[in-house]
Write a structure and sequence with these properties.
By secondary structure, the chain is an alpha+beta fold. The protein has helices at residues 83-86, 89-104, 135-144, 151-170, and strands at residues 13-14, 43-44, 47-55, 59-67, 73-81, 113-119, 122-128, 181-182. The protein starts with 12 loop residues before the first strand and ends in a 9-residue tail after the last strand.
Length: 191
């Protein structure tokens, strides 16, 4: 295991009320009756879906390829709102706000946002794809091998994650006012 470059792969959002959310920012919804609008091989806009990476209470995350003129291709990650929540404007507004705020952030330990769009009624964020394993995957693998991750690796991952989180927390608008950005889902699977 080598020393990793660490970036958080979930976006930072502001809690405008400042209230403590006992669900830690997670929105739980029943999704059993709804199927995703995307699947491997699906084309939408300039993107072609390769595979689903994750599904949570509010959205799905997909590996995709952006295509352009002259054979241009770039792997990206696409985040969408779950189909059953797409009809609720508040969830679409949250995705749009998340993309707008995250697109302002430019730090080596924060995933970059490339695009915010809508194809049909499917709103999405396209963001940087980071090849490699998450901290959760590394921990599982080391556990399966009966080993521990080297302390140097863990400390590097924690320190670089904290650098990105501090940058976002201290981020100010054009008038110098802090935006009050919070990650709300920092976990080994998001590092």
């Amino acid at each position: 295991l080598s020393s990793p470059v660490t970036r958080t792969n979930m976006f930072l959002i502001r809690d405008p009320s400042g209230a403590k959310d006992e669900r830690r920012g997670r929105i739980v919804a029943s999704t059993g009756a709804f199927e995703s609008r995307l699947s491997p091989g699906t084309s939408f806009g300039r993107y072609v879906v390769e595979s689903r990476l994750a599904r949570g209470g509010m959205g799905e995350v997909w590996l995709a390829t952006a295509r352009g003129p002259g054979g241009f291709q770039k792997r990206v990650v696409i985040k969408t709102v779950l189909p059953d929540l797409m009809e609720k404007p508040a969830y679409v507004q949250m995705l749009v706000k998340e993309a707008s705020l995250a697109a302002r952030l430019d730090h080596p330990n924060i995933v970059h946002v490339f695009d915010l769009g809508c194809v049909g009624s499917l709103y999405y964020i396209a963001m940087e794809y980071l090849s490699g394993r998450s901290l959760a995957q590394m921990l599982r693998r080391s556990h399966d091998l009966g080993q521990r991750l080297p302390l140097r690796v863990l400390l590097t991952m924690i320190a670089t994650s904290c650098d990105g989180l501090q940058y976002a927390h201290d981020y100010t608008d054009e008038d110098g006012q802090k935006l009050g950005l919070l990650h709300r889902d920092i976990s080994p699977s998001n590092i």
